Structures are given as structure tokens and as C-alpha cells.
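Illustration 12: Pentapeptide repeat-containing protein.
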Amino acid sequence: MDVNPVRPVTASRNTEETTVPTAVSVRAAIEAWQNETAPGEERTMVAARLLGCLENAESMMQIRAPVTTLPALLPPSLIALTLDGCTALCDISHLPAGLKFLSVVGCSSLETVSTPLPESILGLFICHCPLLTGIEGELPPQLHQRVYVNGCTALDEAQRAFLSFPADKLSRKTLTAAELMADIRHFSANRHEEEGEAARNFSECGFICGDLHGLNLSKVNMSHSDFRRANLTEVTLTHAAVKESDFTSATLTDAVLDFSNLNQSNFTGATLTGVSMNGTSIDDVNFTDANLERAQMGGASFYESYPIVTGARFKNAVLCPGMLLEGAVLGMADNSPPPDIRCIRLADAWLPVPEVWDQEAVTFLLDYEKYPDCCLLKTIDSM
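Figure caption equivalent — predicted structure in C-alpha cell form:
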């Protein structure tokens, strides 16, 4: 296979790319491909989707199935093709002439793209295809403007250099949801001491409805990102920058957010049961209507603006000393055992108090004028 990234375009390639197959030819290729289904492989739904795309001249197509091959011809109307998690796919042998965006994500068996990229290609995204050795033919120079290749360790060295992604300049905000989720899962599973700031930069990214359950995201930059309705259950997000991000209706059950900066982030309607916020900065964080049952906030802090807790629930949560509870939903205490730290009951929540009431502790926690943001009495009086 020719993997020279600067090979001249040949006349035969031009002819191939500019020849648009007829609808009859494409339909026949798809139906033939469907009839060649290997044992244990399901192509019927993919074929039906491709035929619908052909009939309606659709421009976008996503294939997410363990298919071993693709049809010899694809609908010529396609300008954006996403192959997401096609773990059995070994080769891509045809691409429509008018294709502008190709995304190949988590195709762990893919070894080659044995057809040249169309000259119309504007964006190429290949994430975590560890067996991919090369892409046939010339790589168009415009790919330098929009390319993302990551986790393709077997890729030909020359092509890998040509397609290197300047993460320090572009971040990951241009990635699609599928590309971004594949990338962050790979990042979480392959942490190492030498990773730089660019590798940890997930700022301004869209994780709407994404599943980040259990990921290790310590020390990342996820500020200005969108986590609406995302699942961050049991995620480790410590020592991280997560400022001005949107977690509306997200689930963060038992997440660990210790020593992170959440300032001005929005957790409206979010589920934060059992979340840990030891040493976490929560200036002007919006917890409106959030469920913070069993949340550990005793070590959290704020310095300029109080967190907003209107409609928030704190059953058996350990509160942050000094926070205002105006508008919070506080119920009757139950018989739940106290936390491991020394606390007093405050309605159905807990308020931490010092183990030893020496003069320093008395001043720090009870002197409203000197330490207004940490004063226990302020929290109690705000009920």
C-alpha cells in the first residue's frame, strides 16, 4: 500500500473520485453486501439505513455496528460519514467522491483505509484505531486546517507527522460527540506522569448526555464545558479546573470533586448525592433545585459570592460552614448515623464543628465580623 503523504495525484485517481456511481449501482452494492453477512454479523439494519440514505439523498450517516466490511459503494450524497465503534471493521475500501468529513472512532480492528481520500475532504477525525497503519494515496493539504488523529499508534510515521493535531492551539472543542467521548475514555484509561497541559485540556467541549461514568479526570481543564444531562457517576474530578461549566440535570452520584475549582458553574437540577467536595471552591455556584443528599461539603470554600441553593435538598449532607441556606429545602432529621467527622444536626443536614473548641476555632467559626464566610452562626441564622 502506498502511504506516501506527498504522492502526486494520478489521473486514474481523479477519474475514480469524479465518477459518481448511479443509484442502481449503489443499491446493488448495498444489497450484495447485506447478503454476504458473515456468521454472527448483523448487517440488515445498517443496509436499511444506507438504502434510506440513498433514497432520500441524505448528507450525513453514522454507522455503529460490529460489521467486518463496508459496501463496495456508498450513497454519493454523503458529505459526512461517521464510523463509531465498528470494532470488527478491518478496511475502508470506498469513500463517496463528495465526502467532506470523515470520522473514524474506536474502530479497534481497522488496519487500512485502502482508498484515497476524496479531494473534497475538509475534515478528518481518527480516534483510537490502534491497528491503523496508513491511508492510501495523497493526503490533501487542506487537512492541516481541520484534522484530529489520536491513539493511532501504528500509523505510518510520515502520515502521523502530517496529521499531527496541534492540541495546544485548537483544543478539542471542534470534535463531534462521538469523537470527544472516545477521546476522553482513552485519555482516562491511559494516564501517565508525562502528560502535558494540552493533553489535559477539555475546555469548551460539549459533553451533553455523555457517559463519563467512573472516568479518571484529575487535573484536567474542563472549564466552560457543557455537561447538561451527562452521567458523571463516580467520576474522579480532583484538582481540576471546571469553572463556568453547565451541569444542568447532570448526574454526579458519588463523584469526587475534591480540590477543584467549580466557581460560577451551574448545577441546576443536578443529582449530586454522595458527592465529595473537600477543598473545592464553590464561589457563585448555582445549586438551584439540585439534590445534594449525603454530599460532603464540609471542606468546600467560597470567598467572593455565596453558592445559590434555592430549592436544593441537603438530606444528611455535611454543609459548608458559612454558606447561606435561604430557599433550601430542609426537612426533619432521621435516624441516619452521623458522618465520620464531628458534626451537629441542622434540620435534616449536618454542620461540621471542630473536634477541639480552642480559641482559634472559636474565633474562626463564631466570629461573624472577622470571618463572615466561615461563620457557623451565619449558616444557622440563614435557615
